[in-house]
């Protein structure tokens, strides 16, 4: 990581590292199943493994007893269209909840339907509930209590002047990997005092400002577009440099190709691997996006104060280091438990510069 990288890149790396450590510990403690790596021994009917955002966005609002669909929608600000998408996933696909309603009702899940946690969902929630505080306590021991408190104080100086309706977690990215800029009005929120909530609110506020003036999402720019040039890069190198999953990179590249921002080149080394390069339009988009990113950070320095932004960058840089596996303190926290699925996957060489939270399960690298 270079010191001239924009503020969202630093915020993102710290937030992604926290979520990955949270997810690794949840996977270690809670019975679960995965698509490629099997299930926890003796738990073939356990819920499908998901990331922290599914807890933050949905499952933390479901009590141990029951809740109606209408009440869950009220608490989460989930509209009817979203409910039609996510409730079947949490129920039939992933196995965290059961939903019941009168047989005479329509096939569409009605507002009066009753939601209950499955036995596997109850075990998952019991692990999730104390986990944010537990990971934050680990960070205080690992980085130092003063350093973590300095980071939270710097974030709070910005947070207290932001839109109070911003959620305390990042949303799942939409079409074009955009951040939905609508207002969130759910009544129940996590404490803004938690580190991931503060990081999420500040990062989300910047992302919304960027995307309101940009032709491309901050996720595509930060993780893909800013790493490319007109000479070309192969997919393995792009994945290595970005730290995002192959599926997330493919979604970003598909959007860029559809908008004539990238071209495919023959490898000059004679290798069969094709190179992905920016077209002239892509180069202009990259330039404009870079200028916008730095312009917005300058406006934040005016809005929140040079000292406030400078202090935040300084403390973030102490956590991130140079962003490499050997030079970033964050990487020491990302080692998965021996049985976790990430222990069998290639180890990352970078942490995403913006969370790639997709519908696949909400993992921050798009896995």
Main-sheet strand order equals 1-3-2
Separation of the first and last Cα atoms = 22 Å
Number of helical segments? 13
Task: Pick out the low-confidence regions.
Answer: none
Rg result: 21 Å
SSE order in H/E notation? HHEHHEEHHHHHHHEEHH
Structural class: mainly alpha
Number of strands: 5
- How is the quaternary structure best described? single chain
Q: Which properties best describe this structure?
A:
single chain, 367 residues, mainly alpha, 3-stranded antiparallel sheet, 5 strands, 48% helix, globular
Explain this structure.
This protein has 367 residues and is mainly α. The protein contains 13 helices and five strands. The chain has helices spanning 7-29, 52-57, 69-76, 80-93, 119-128, 131-143, 145-159, 195-213, 218-223, 235-242, 246-258, 280-304, 306-320, and strands at 67-68, 97-100, 114-117, 262-265, 275-278. The strands form two sheets. It has a three-stranded antiparallel beta sheet. A two-stranded antiparallel sheet has the order 4-5. Helix 1 (7-29) packs across helix 8. It is globular. The protein starts with 6 loop residues before the first helix and ends in a 47-residue tail after the last helix.
Topology:
Blueprint: H1 7-29, H2 52-57, E1 67-68, H3 69-76, H4 80-93, E2 97-100, E3 114-117, H5 119-128, H6 131-143, H7 145-159, H8 195-213, H9 218-223, H10 235-242, H11 246-258, E4 262-265, E5 275-278, H12 280-304, H13 306-320
Antiparallel strand pairs: 1-3, 2-3, 4-5
């Amino acid at each position: 990581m270079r010191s001239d990288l924009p503020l969202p890149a630093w915020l993102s790396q710290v937030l992604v590292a926290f979520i990955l450590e949270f997810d690794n510990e949840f996977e270690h403690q809670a019975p679960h199943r995965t698509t490629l790596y099997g299930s926890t021994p003796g738990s073939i009917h356990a819920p499908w493994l998901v990331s922290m955002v599914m807890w933050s966005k949905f499952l933390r609002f479901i009590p141990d007893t029951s809740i109606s669909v209408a009440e869950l929608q009220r608490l989460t600000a989930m509209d009817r269209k979203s409910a039609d998408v996510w409730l079947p996933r949490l129920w039939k696909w992933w196995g965290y909840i059961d939903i019941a309603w009168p047989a005479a009702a329509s096939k569409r899940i009605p507002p009066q339907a009753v939601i209950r946690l499955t036995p596997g969902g109850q075990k998952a929630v019991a692990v999730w509930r104390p986990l944010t505080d537990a990971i934050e306590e680990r960070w205080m021991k690992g980085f130092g209590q003063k350093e973590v408190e300095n980071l939270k104080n710097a974030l709070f100086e910005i947070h207290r002047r932001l839109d109070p309706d911003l959620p305390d977690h990042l949303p799942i990215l939409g079409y074009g990997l955009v951040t939905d800029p609508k207002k969130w009005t759910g009544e129940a929120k996590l404490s803004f005092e938690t580190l991931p909530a503060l990081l999420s609110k500040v990062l989300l506020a910047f992302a919304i400002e960027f995307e309101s003036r940009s032709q491309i999402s901050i996720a595509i720019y930060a993780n893909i577009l800013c790493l490319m040039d007109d000479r070309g890069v192969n997919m393995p190198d792009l994945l290595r440099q970005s730290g995002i999953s192959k599926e997330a990179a493919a979604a970003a590249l598909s959007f860029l190709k559809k908008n004539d921002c990238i071209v495919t080149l023959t490898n000059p080394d004679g290798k069969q691997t094709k190179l992905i390069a920016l077209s002239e339009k892509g180069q202009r988009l990259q330039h404009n996006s870079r200028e916008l990113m730095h312009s917005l950070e300058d406006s934040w320095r005016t809005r929140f104060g040079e000292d406030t932004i400078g202090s935040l960058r300084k403390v973030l840089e102490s956590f991130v280091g140079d962003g490499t596996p050997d030079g970033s303190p964050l990487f020491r926290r990302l080692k998965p438990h021996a049985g976790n699925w990430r222990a069998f996957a290639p180890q990352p060489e970078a942490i995403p510069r913006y969370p790639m939270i997709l519908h696949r399960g909400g993992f921050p690298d798009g896995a």
